[in-house]
Amino acid sequence: QGQLVESGGGLVQPGGSLRLSCAASGIIFRVAVMNWYRQSPGKERELVATLSPTGYTNYADPVKGRFNLSRDNAKNTVELQMNSLKPEDTGVYYCYAKMSCREYWGQGTQVTVSA
Fold first, then answer.
1. What letter does residue 55 receive in the DSSP assignment?
2. What is the pLDDT at residue 24?
């Protein structure tokens, strides 16, 4: 079965940076659409960023210019670089992969932005 494992979450001060990684196994990674979602308490899960196999990226308005999503096909990983973090960025971040007939979710990693 396919599996996604996130890492890199933690506590950071406002204005700081974190880098989240998602390692994929059992997935044809190079043809998968890779997304990051986040969910904060009391709110619905929201799409943060998406990356297509062709390199197309799109970001939610609140993170544009601050977050960058990239993939390394040789390592079967995607990386979400988060800069200039704000308290409202706090939440559980989930990696997501979509194939033509299957989808996969990671277990989530907590990101807390607080002084």
1. -
2. 94
Backbone angles phi, psi at 66, to 5 degrees: -115, -30
Residues of the chain with pLDDT under 70: none
pLDDT of 85: 98
State the burial class of residue 15 (Cβ atoms within 10 Å of its Cβ: 0-12, 13-18, 19+). exposed
Q: Token match 């200039």: residue?
A: 84
Burial 32-42 (b: 16+ CB within 10 A, else e): bbbbbbbeeee
Q: How far is residue 78 CA from its own chain's centroid? A: 8
Query: What are φ and ψ of residue 70, in 5° steps?
Result: -140, 165
pLDDT of residue 19: 98
* pLDDT value for 30: 86
